[in-house]
Amino acid sequence: MPLDLLDRKLLYELDSNSRKPINQIAKKLRINRTVAAYRIDRLKKEGIIKGTYTQINNFSLKYYSFRMFIKLGNFTEDKESSLINNLVKEKKLLWLARVLGKWDIDLIYMTKSIFEFDTFQKNLLLKYNDIIEEYQTALLTKINDYPKDYLINKERTPLSLKKSIKESSFEPDGLHEKILFYLSENASMNIIHLGQKVGASTNTVKKKMKELIRNKIILAFRLFIDTNKLGYQYYKLHLTLRHYREKDLYELTSFLESKNFMISTDHYLGGEHFEIELHIATEKEYIDFISELMKRYGKIIKDHYVIKFYKELTYRYLPVIDTA
């Protein structure tokens, strides 16, 4: 489906705040509300808008997020399907994707117990070690997310607008966590329905949501966009550095943040120095970016590799909870 500038502006506004009422979006874009509603509905029907989610500072909920890269080998289609199906059913997985490149599977497992992840990983390897040739485990320590400025060909907004996920002193209670869970799966859920789900009054839910936003537990309400249907490729670039100083890190970070197609940077204990997620329109755009990167910073880049996400199977910000 070819997208025009209005479609892109609608996606950009909704990705900035997916709870924003349609009439407010229409007013900002100076279009009729009916036109805005029709366009958004069409984007959903075409599968470009896959849903909405809440960007949550889950460090404040005392969770650990473990990333596993998996390389497969010597596998049958049945064995591969068995592995993927079991992973899809795993309630503690926040992210599961098929990738091309150095690895075949990328997953993130979230838990409040390190021992629980250790058990998960041991059981996974015990059952599938005949097809898992290699794996790498790392612990997430920080995420910086950025607006999808490439949607409207906008120069990168000031760096202060990036959404950083890191530790916070605020301690959410049980009701906060229930609200976060439902909003993590559907950021646009209306307040009345949300109150019914968590068993609280509308006013109480509003109050709790304001607390979560004020204390930067809720960072944003965003869109889950199918990048392939949008016409973009989803890459993750990994950089290993050498002989660098703090000044070099600052300059490299500033360079990367200036690129409007960079959507996030992740930091892992046990990962590479820089892990950068990109939405790229063309292969030439990626080649030009890498060429510029190496020309400017090749002296401190020891190695780099890229993986391409081609199938996103699981995407959420909190583990599935028992809502019975």
Describe this structure as you would to a colleague.
There is one protein chain. The chain is α+β, with helices and mostly antiparallel strands and 324 residues long. Among the domains are: 1-46, Winged helix-like DNA-binding domain superfamily/Winged helix DNA-binding domain (Arc Repressor Mutant, subunit A, Orthogonal Bundle), CATH 1.10.10; 63-141, Lrp/AsnC effector binding domain/regulation of amino acid metabolism (RAM) domain (Alpha-Beta Plaits), CATH 3.30.70. Helices cover 39% and strands 30% of the residues. It is built from 11 helices and 11 strands. Strand 9 (262-269) and strand 10 form a beta hairpin. The chain is globular.
The assigned CATH architecture of one domain is 2-Layer Sandwich
Shape: globular
Q: What topology, given as strand order, has the largest sheet?
A: 2-4-3-11-8-10-9-5
Distance between the termini: 40 Å
CATH class categorisation of one domain: Alpha Beta
Number of helices: 11
Strand content: 25-35%
Question: Mean of residue pLDDT?
Answer: 94
- As a whole number of angstroms, the C-alpha radius of gyration is 20 Å
Helical content stands at 25-40%
